[in-house]
Every structure is written in C-alpha cells, then in structure tokens.
C-alpha cells in the first residue's frame, strides 16, 4: 500500500496532467468548431488562438489557462481505505502543485480577503470520496475556472418567466436559458453539465460530475440522450459563438444527469465549463502503477 506521501505524489501527477493537457475529445470538438466557422471571422480567429494555446501548453507542460481553477476530485477507493487520508493527500497535492507553479495560488479567504498563497483553503480543493468494489483507486479531476463558474445557474421550477413547468420540457428551457444568459461569458465555447432534481447543493455537485463525461459519449437514458442532442443543436443555433463573438460554436457538449427530489422542490442546476475543459482520470494500483483514463 502506498503511504500518504506517495498518494500525494500520484495526485500531483494527475493535477499536472489536467492542468496542461486537454482530453482528445475536447480538442477534436474545438477543431470541428473551427471548421464550421467562416474563414477570417472573429469566431475562427478565437478558435485558432485557443488551439494554438492548447498545443503550446501541451508541449511545455504549462497551464492551459492563467486561471487554473478550482480542483474538484472524485476519488473511488477500495473498502476500508481512509477517506481522511486520501483527502489530506489530495489537499497536500494541491499545495505542492501550487508551489511548483502547476496551479496558480487560487484560494482566497473571504473574511480577510487574503490569498492563502498555497492554493488550498476550506472547500478548496473539493474532494468527493466514494467507496467502490475494486482493488485500485480511481481519481477523476476537473479544474474549473472562475469565469465559467460565475455563469452557472440554478432554477426552481415552475418558472413563469421561462414558461417552464416541472417536466423535461421545463428542464430543457432552463438549460438553454443558462446558455443564453451567459452570452459567451465564461469563455465559450463551453460544455454544459446539468442536473435536475436533488437539492440546491447536491444538484450542483451532480451537474459538475456530469462534466467528467467524454463529449462523445451517450447518455444511457434515451430521453436524456435526446435532450442532450436537442439542446446541443439549439444552443449552437443561438449565434453567440466563441467568446461571444458570434458564430456557430457556442457549446461543445451538453451532459445531463438527474437525482431524486422532494415533492416540494424541483431544481435544475447548470454548471458551465469553459473551452479549457481540464479533465483527467487515473487508475492507481495499490503498488503505485498508473493507468491514465479518458
Ligand atoms: S473561464 Fe476558463 S478559459 Fe476563461 S479564464 Fe477562466 S479558466 Fe480560463
């Protein structure tokens, strides 16, 4: 079994991977968007800059964006492993990654308004440990930028303004409204992670967990698969485009999950992820072998 210090080393590698390399499905979606935009348009130029930036970061193991975001990790661990140890190891990994300039010092105490200087504070990183029936540890990480976090939205249905009732059509209206309201802020083209049901807290957590999915995967539930495809098409017809410059590439993907709800509540939680969809996954064996996951 690895020691806590060894787990920290492994987690630093996962953070470095996420910070400097975008998953291939995201790069493919950005390239596809670039092909759709008119040559010479602001949209095409914005996507060209993004694609160049991705290549430079990858070659140099440099952060893809100056805002290295909030690290949000899901750690699946074997029965009996200490979640306190894993969480502490991940927090230390964030401090070490910040010291190595893999991450920006990105944690501010809102009471004193002082930056902690080491990237870690209560709630940062956000670590979710879940027990699993497997001998290995699986860690899945997103680094979620502040700009895109600012344009996330939560709706309580029914919503008279959107004519959104407590049904799938109401959910669709809310998600599309969140994209419309963002207007390219949060560094479009974005990826939409959404959840309907849950409470105000669990809904947002699940909406972020949806961002772990590959852009080219398919929802196991046919009605949600249909809704993901429909919103993807409709969002890209809004004309908002990369960075709000206008164009055909407003979102790269839409991923929707759901949770149980109280009879009295019906929330739709929408998390917006910028084009810098930094996502990394690794399976780590008890002896330290690492297998990278898509
Ligand atoms: S929203 Fe994303 S791409 Fe934009 S500045 Fe923040 S991290 Fe960077």
Explain what the structure shows:
This protein is α+β, with helices and mostly antiparallel strands and 294 residues long. The protein folds into two domains: 4-21 and 63-145 and 278-293, 2-Layer Sandwich (60s Ribosomal Protein L30, Chain: A); 147-273, no CATH class. It has eight helices and eleven strands. It has helices at residues 4-20, 24-36, 42-60, 83-99, 146-150, 168-182, 200-209, 222-236, and strands at residues 70-77, 108-109, 114-115, 126-131, 137-144, 153-156, 190-196, 251-258, 267-273, 278-284, 290-293. α1 (4-20) packs across α4 (83-99), α2 runs antiparallel to α3 (42-60) and α6 runs parallel beside α8 (222-236). Iron/sulfur cluster (SF4) is lined by residues 65, 67, 69, 145-148, 186-187, 274, 276.
Question: In brief, what are we looking at here?
Answer:
This protein has helices at 4-20, 24-36, 42-60, 83-99, 146-150, 168-182, 200-209, 222-236, and strands spanning 70-77, 108-109, 114-115, 126-131, 137-144, 153-156, 190-196, 251-258, 267-273, 278-284, 290-293. It is of the alpha+beta class.
End-to-end span in angstroms?
Answer: 25 Å
Distinct ligands, ions and cofactors found in the model:
iron/sulfur cluster
What order do the helices and strands follow? HHHEHEEEEHEHEHHEEEE
Mean pLDDT: 97
The number of helical elements comes to 8
Give, in spatial order, the strands making up the sheet with the most strands. Answer: 4-1-5-10-11
Please summarize the sheet with the most strands.
Answer: 5 strands, mixed
Q: DSSP strand (E) fraction?
A: 15-25%
Could you list the spans in which at least 5 consecutive residues all have pLDDT below 50? none
Shape: globular
Binned, the helix content reads 25-40%
Report the C-alpha radius of gyration, rounded: 19 Å
Number of domains: 2
Structural classification? alpha+beta
E-strand count: 11
């Amino acid at each position: 079994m690895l020691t806590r210090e060894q787990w920290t080393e492994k987690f630093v590698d996962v953070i470095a991977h996420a910070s400097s390399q975008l998953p291939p499905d995201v790069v493919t979606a950005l390239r596809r968007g670039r092909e759709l935009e008119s040559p010479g348009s602001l949209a095409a130029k914005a996507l060209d800059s993004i694609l160049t930036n991705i290549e430079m970061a990858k070659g140099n193991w440099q952060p893809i964006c100056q805002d290295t975001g909030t690290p949000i990790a899901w750690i699946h661990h074997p029965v009996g492993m200490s979640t306190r140890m894993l969480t502490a190891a991940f927090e230390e990994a964030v401090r070490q990654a910040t010291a190595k300039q893999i991450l920006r010092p990105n944690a501010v105490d809102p009471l004193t308004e002082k930056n902690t200087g080491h990237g870690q504070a209560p709630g940062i990183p956000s670590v979710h440990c879940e027990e699993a029936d497997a001998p290995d540890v699986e860690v899945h990480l997103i680094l979620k930028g502040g700009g895109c976090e600012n344009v996330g939205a939560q709706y309580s249905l029914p919503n008279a303004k959107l004519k959104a009732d407590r049904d799938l059509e109401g959910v669709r209206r809310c998600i599309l409204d969140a994209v419309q309201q963002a207007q390219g802020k949060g560094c479009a083209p974005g990826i939409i992670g959404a959840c309907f049901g849950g409470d105000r807290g669990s809904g947002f957590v699940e909406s972020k967990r949806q961002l772990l999915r590959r852009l080219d995967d398919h929802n196991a539930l046919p009605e949600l698969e249909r809704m993901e495809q429909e919103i993807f098409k409709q969002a890209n017809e809004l004309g908002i485009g990369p960075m709000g410059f206008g164009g055909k590439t407003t979102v790269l993907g839409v991923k929707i999950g759901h949770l149980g709800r109280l009879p009295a509540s019906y929330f739709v939680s929408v998390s917006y992820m910028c084009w810098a969809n930094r996502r990394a996954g690794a399976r780590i064996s008890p002896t330290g072998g690492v297998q990278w996951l898509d």
